[in-house]
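Example 3.2
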Amino acid sequence: MSSPSSSTQHSPVEGQSTVGGSTTLGAQSKQPIGALFGTASEHMSTLIRAEVELAKAEIATSAKRGGIGAGMFGAAGVMLLFSVTFLFIALAEGLVALGLPRWLSYLIVWAFFVLLAGLLVLIGMRLLKKVKAPERTIETLKDSKELLSRQAPGQRSPGIARTP
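Structure, written as tokens:
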């Protein structure tokens, strides 16, 4: 048989006040310890879910920036590959037609494509450096850890059974 005071209540009990949607305990609270643990467990679950959502949002933003930077590296590789096979010969032969020795023409074209690929790599590196760690999530996790570490020794979370 359970009494009304032993079940989880959604309205303040005697000695409690509601402030901004949260319940604060007064000195004369008649709420049993089990209900308090239940409420604490609900709040902890809500906190963890909120932190997971925050992490997802921050990681999505960073992943987008990282993807663009990685795409720049990929573009540099593709440019280098196609430039070696197609444009290298055409441009070098164009320089030969202008009167330069064949070896110098091919060397000039090769240097041009290496510089172009290097520029794409530098742009990609700059974009990747802008990728940030999920700072707000890390900060709230530190705060949560600090809050949990303030619990009295020997306390354990409700719902965790001890093994004999």
